[in-house]
Amino acid sequence: MLEDVPRDPFADDPNDPSAAMGALDDAEPLTAAERDEAITDLADVEVFRSLLEPQGVLGLVLDCPECGEQHFFDWELLRGNLRQMIEKGQPQVHEPAFRPDPADYVTWEYARGYVDGVIDTEERH
Fold this sequence. Notes:
Blueprint: H1 32-52, E1 59-63, E2 70-74, H2 75-88, E3 105-106, H3 108-124
Parallel strand pairs: 1-3
Antiparallel strand pairs: 1-2
C-alpha cells in the first residue's frame, strides 16, 4: 500500500538540506581497471568472511584517507558497498558502526595474511 511508504519530507523543496551532497546518480562510472579491482575486492571479502566470521570476526576496519579515522564495516556493509561501487560507481551512504568493539574487526592486511596462511597450511598437507 502506498500509505505505508515513507514520503520524503523534502521532496520538491528547493532548500532540501541533502542537496549539498549532490545527486547520487551523478557518479562517474568506474574505469575498467577500477571495476576489476572492485570485483576482486568483493571476491576477497567473500573469502575473508568465510574464514574469519566463524572465528568471531564481524568485519574489517579501514583507515579513511579523507578524515584520518578508522571506519568499521561489517561483512554485509562491505559487500553492499562493493556491489554498489560496481553497479553505480560509488559506495552506498551508510551510518557508521555504533560503538564497535575494535577487537571484533581486523584490517584488510590481517585478513589477507590469514587467508594466505590457511592456503599455505592446506597446500602443505
